[in-house]
Amino acid sequence: MAQAQIPVSTPPEPKGVSHSAHPKAWKWYDYFTFNVDHKVIGIQYLVTAFVFYLIGGLMAIAMRAELATPDADLLDPNLYNAFMTNHGTIMIFLWIVPSAIGGFGNFLVPLMVGARDMAFPKLNAIAFWLNPPAGALLLGSFFFGGSQTGWTAYPPLSLITANTAQSMWILSIVFVGTSSILGSVNFIVTILKMKVPSMKWDQLPLFCWAILATSVLALVSTPVLAAGLVLLLFDINFGTSFYKPDAGGNVIIYQHLFWFYSHPAVYLMILPIFGIMSEVIPVHARKPIFGYKAIAYSSLAICVVGLFVWVHHMFTSGTPPWMRMFFTISTLIVAVPTGVKIFGWVATLWGGKIRLTSAMLFAVGLLAMFVMGGLSGITLGTAPFDVHVHDTYYVVAHFHYVLFGGSVFGIYAGMYHWFPKITGRMYSEFWGRVHFVLTFIGTNLTFLPMHELGLQGMPRRVAMYDPQFTALNQICTFGAFLLGLSVIPFAFNMMLSWMRGPAAGDNPWQALTLEWTTSSPPAIENWAVLPVVTHGPYEYGMNGHNPQGKLSAPEKESPVSVK
Questions:
Q1: Alpha-carbon span 546 to 354, nearest angstrom
Q2: How far apart are CA 110 and CA 195, in angstroms?
Q3: CA–CA separation, 144 and 158 (whole Å)
Q4: Is 123 helix (H, G, I), strand (E, B) or coil?
Q5: Which of 153, 195, 270, 514 gives 20 to 30 Å between its CA and that of 137?
Q6: CA 213/CA 242 separation, integer angstroms
Q7: Tens digit of pLDDT at every position of the chain (563 positions)
Q8: How many other CB atoms are there within 10 angstroms of residue 25's CB atom?
Q9: Alpha-carbon distance 423 to 498, whole Å?
């Protein structure tokens, strides 16, 4: 295979980092310090987010146990409200967003673009260390009764129940939002300015395209949420009246400010997962990604169109007919670039030499779950149907299929795919498959019946309900317990494999993106000199790369040349 040789000089040290000061490898206690290595920060994000996932999951199990019967016989209604509020907050702001963007993004982006580190290593560390105090504020609010307004914190409810817990909740979200803004700046500069010169834009891994679109979206939308929450904080604590109707305030303004961020937040959670899907599927199908440019540009399209759909959350808030029409159309349009990705992945799978690894199982499972959630999302995006099922369990079913069946399945796929690179060890495929089966069955048992509950009129966010809904709720509760059990094989598989799993080698999947050309785990500064890219990241079955996954003679050559 012909290789384009481009002379490369030794790159400068990352800002704020002294090469001579580095040890040969990090010790375990370095992961509990203010470390500027992007790989350490990525692992810090992933582990911290998983801890919060367990906490949020326990809250969900407690709520589902309460909902097994129509009466409030397990949780006090106020405690149920606090669990409901903080479960949603934790899962979105402290689990999915930090793990998908902060965890995988930090670990992978510099490796994928051929950089030694992120553009601003110290800023990167600061962005992570804003998350633990945010989580502490959120959990500490339970000592003051816990926020009980739902994760949307709509006034006037959040004003009527104004207390110390609500203020702590707001400060927690502002901390997480600040972390997201700092991280987004870092990702944009790293991808645009630190990509190796030999890497053309049509050779940039699709995960990096997804992170770039996500970062732009976060920069535009997150400050709007922060502004809305700060105004709410002022109303609660300093006597202002931005949202107090009896003093000339407007509660609908809060909804606009909140949803201008919080619907794009769905894309903040799912776009990095789309990037993970675009990396996992071609590797384990041993086939070039179908429609590389279409998938890359569709991420940017989602970034743009996703900013113009937020009012579909407000169809029952007195929106005028012209506004309902406009946002119904924009909601249906945003499904188009998402559909482009779905068709691209299915076409990549078609005729591929599929290896049913744990990563691939979760990727294929995500396709099924996300399509289900997407179809219900299209129905909710049309104003007449949305008015009918607004604030029912149909909405709960929809966003859990999208966020759990989509984002969480994608996080699991990414964990299994890059676990050998992160740790240098292989995991147990048997327990990975057990984890997938339990998760897939548990997800459908928990959330599929909720569609019927919503169509029958059961309201969400309530601890007590009409006895006619008991049977379906008991099925959901059984599924939730199964989902809780599914975490056990995953956690033990990861921990035991990290400690004493078999050595993985540098590239056990025979993948072609740059991160697989480093050692496993990668050296502290990734490369002694910058790599030179000689072919695309998905050329499986092309240029001598064997689609069956066995190394042919040409494939033993690295996809990079270092001079």
A1: 13
A2: 8
A3: 15
A4: helix
A5: 270
A6: 32
A7: 333 333 333 344 444 444 444 566 788 889 899 999 999 999 999 999 999 999 999 999 999 999 999 999 999 999 999 999 999 999 999 999 999 999 999 999 999 999 999 999 999 999 999 999 999 999 999 999 999 999 999 999 999 887 899 999 999 999 999 999 999 999 999 999 999 999 999 999 999 999 999 999 999 999 999 999 999 999 999 999 999 999 999 999 999 999 999 999 999 999 999 999 999 999 999 999 999 999 999 999 999 999 999 999 999 998 999 999 999 999 999 999 999 999 999 999 999 999 999 999 999 999 999 999 999 999 999 999 999 999 999 999 999 999 999 999 999 999 999 999 999 999 999 999 999 999 999 999 999 999 999 999 999 999 999 999 999 999 999 999 999 999 999 999 999 999 999 999 999 999 999 999 999 999 988 888 888 998 889 998 876 555 544 433 333 334 444 33
A8: 9
A9: 6
Separation in Å, CA 466 to CA 74, 75, 471, 473: 17, 17, 11, 11
Residue 458's nearest CA partner among 402, 398, 394, 388 is 394
Q: Which residue has the tokens 């901390």?
A: 175
Crossing angle of helices 358-380 and 393-402, rounded to 10°? 140
- How many angstroms separate the Cα of 213 from the Cα of each of 242, 302, 426? 32, 8, 32
CB of 494 closer than 8 Å to CB of 419? yes
Please name which of 289, 299, 296 lies closest in space to residue 268, comparing C-alpha atoms. Answer: 299
Question: CB 350: neighbour CB atoms within 10 A?
Answer: 11
Q: Are 149 and 89 in contact (CB under 8 A)?
A: no
Backbone angles phi, psi at 532, to 5 degrees: -115, 120
According to the model, what pLDDT value does residue 543 have? 65
Helices (H), 238-320: 251-262, 264-285, 292-305
- The beta strands (E) that lie in 429-545 are given as 532-533
The helix or strand, by DSSP H or E, that contains position 164, with its residue range, turns out to be helix 164-193
Radius of gyration of the chain (CA): 24
Q: Are 483 and 446 in contact (CB under 8 A)?
A: yes
Q: Which residue type is seen at 254?
A: Y
Distance in angstroms (rounded) separating the CA atoms of residues 234 and 90: 23
DSSP codes of every residue in 35-77? ---HHHHHHHHHHHHHHHHHHHHHHHHHHHHHTTSSS--SS-H
What the block records as the tokens of 333 is: 């349009």
Q: Parallel, antiparallel, or unpaired for β 532-533 and 560-561?
A: antiparallel
What is the phi/psi pair of residue 392, to 5°?
Answer: -115, 175
* CA distances (Å), origin 426, targets 114, 416, 422, 502, 503: 24, 9, 10, 6, 6
Nearest to 547 by CA among 402, 329, 353, 384: 353
pTM for the whole thing?
Answer: 0.92
